[in-house]
Amino acid sequence: MTNHKVDSLTDSIYVTFDEEAWGRLRADTPNPLSEEELQRLRGINENVSLDEVAQIYLPMSRLLNLYVGGTQDLYRASTTFLGGLAPKVPYIIGIGGSVAVGKSTTGRILRELLARWPNHPQVDLVTTDGFLHPNAVLEERGLMERKGFPESFDIRTLVNFVLQVKSGERRVEHPVYSHHSYDILPGATEIIDQPDILILEGLNVLQARSQAPRSSRLMLSDLFDFSIYVDAETDVVERWYVERFLTFRNTAFRDPDAYFHRYASLRRKDAIETARSIWKSINEPNLIQNILPTRERADLILEKAPDHAVRRVRLRKL
C-alpha cells in the first residue's frame, strides 16, 4: 500500500495542532447544529459526531469568520478609497482532496456553520463535478477511463465561472452533474447570486496547471481567499472507497436506471475486487499524480485517522 507523510518542509510552513489543542481555539463559540441536522450532512459511511464538530469544525468556522470579517473591512476601505459602489464580492473557499476522503461532508458542515454567523448568512456550496466534460465528449476523446483527472474537466468554464462570481456578477449559472446517471444533466443549471461566501469543493481545485484562456493565465486557486485539503493515508482512503462502493452496491446501484446498476448483482467478493481494480487503475493514480501534490498549496490541512475522524490540523503560517 502507498502511504504518504508530511515532510519537514511542510512542518516549517504550517503550525500543527492535535484535536484537543485545535478544539480549544473555538473559544466560547456555541455549537448550533443538532444531531438531526448533522445526520443530514454526513456522507456515506462517515460518522462525524457533534463532539468532532465542536473540536474541529467550530474552530475552523471561527477562524474563517474572522478572515471573512477582515476581508469585508478591507473591501469597504477599498470602496471608500475609490469613491464609488463596487459589486459585492464573495469570500471564496476551496476544498480539495481524494475521492472518498470526505470533502463533501467537510464542505456541507462548514457551509452550515458559516451561515450561522451574522455577518455572512448566505453561503453557497458548489462541487466541481458539474464542470466535468459530458460523457459523450470524454468518450470521443478517449478519456472515460480518466474521469476525474484534470483533463476530464472543462477548466476554462470552471475558471470563468469562479471569476464571474468573484467579480460580483449577479445570477451566475453553473452546470449540474448527476451521480445517478454519472453524467452532466443536459440543459440543467443552478444559479449563484452574489453569496457572502462560496465554497468550491473538488478533486483538483488546488492544481497549479490551468487551461484558462492564455490572455488571463489565471489559475483556479488564484481566485481563492482560503483553501482546505482533506488528507488521509492512501491505503486508508482505498479502504474507504471500497466500503463506499459496497454500500452503493446495496443502495444506489440497485436502481435499474443507475449508470452503475450492473454492479448491483455482484457477489461481495467480486464487488470488492471490482472496487479495488477501479481504485488502482483510476483513483489512486489520480491521487498520487495530481491531487496529493497540491496538498501543500492549502492554507489548512485536515489529517484524518482510519476511523474518518480528524486527528490533526495544520494551519499555514501567515
Structural overview:
With 318 residues, this protein is of the alpha/beta class. The protein has a single domain, classed as Rossmann fold, CATH 3.40.50.300. Helix content is 38%, strand content 18%. The protein has nine helices and nine strands. The protein has helices at 8-13, 19-23, 35-41, 50-82, 103-115, 135-140, 155-166, 234-249, 268-291; strands at residues 14-18, 91-97, 123-127, 172-178, 183-192, 197-201, 226-231, 300-304, 310-316. The chain has a seven-stranded mixed sheet. A hairpin with a 4-residue loop joins strand 4 and strand 5. Helix 4 crosses helix 5 (103-115) and helix 8 (234-249) packs across helix 9 (268-291). The longest helix has 33 residues, at 50-82. The protein is globular and about 65 Å long. 34% of the residues are buried. The model is unreliable at 210-215 (pLDDT under 50).
Task: Give the tags.
9 strands, two-stranded antiparallel ribbon, Rossmann fold, globular, 18% strand, 38% helix, alpha/beta, 7-stranded mixed sheet, 9 helices, single chain, 318 residues
